[in-house]
Amino acid sequence: MGPVLGEDGVLRCPWAGGPGVMRDYHDTEWGRRVDGEAGYLERLTLEAFQSGLSWSTILHKREAFREVFVGFDAETVADFDEGDVERLMTEVRIVRNRRKIEAAVANARATLALRDDVGLEAFVLGFAPEVPPAPEDTDQQATTSAESVALSKALKKRGFAFVGPTTMYALCEAIGVFDPHLVGCHRQGVA
């Protein structure tokens, strides 16, 4: 399936065809570059929490995630201890999954360690594809790539968790490492 025409007369990727939070995310954020360590850590964390769930669920809980993970400040989250994990396990406004919460803390610590090298942002951008995909329809869209597999392995070696190849592909789409929009979508080719 190619781009779909919304009731507003605009062509979009099929998952964003109707009004609501998903379309708003598609039109204003998805595939646009993110800047800064906190922005990258937020998207990496949210993609990990999304694993096995709908993205809509995560978007509806996003403000709560931002609050409980203190704006995704790596230094603050890296200092979370078992008491903080227990506190977050009782927080009904977020996804309460112990392994994912512990991964968020581990990933904040790994992010701090990356500061001694190139930093999280430059590290992720180092895995951008030389030839970005340009799918014309959903049958041509991938869920992994050689680059997302390599990024996953490299992050795991650096102590990151919940960073599988599919999750890293979704991260790269979300933060504009490459343009994920279908050819013909009004957002395709727009930075």
From TrEMBL:
Keywords: Metal-binding, Zinc
Annotated source species: Nocardioides psychrotolerans
Binding positions (Zn(2+)): C13, H26, H181, C185
InterPro entries: Adenine_glyco (IPR005019), DNA-3mA_glycosylase (IPR052891), DNA_glycosylase (IPR011257)
GO molecular function annotation: DNA-3-methyladenine glycosylase activity; metal ion binding
Gene3D superfamilies: Hypothetical protein, domain 2 (1.10.340.30)
Gene Ontology BP terms: base-excision repair
Descriptive protein name: DNA-3-methyladenine glycosylase I
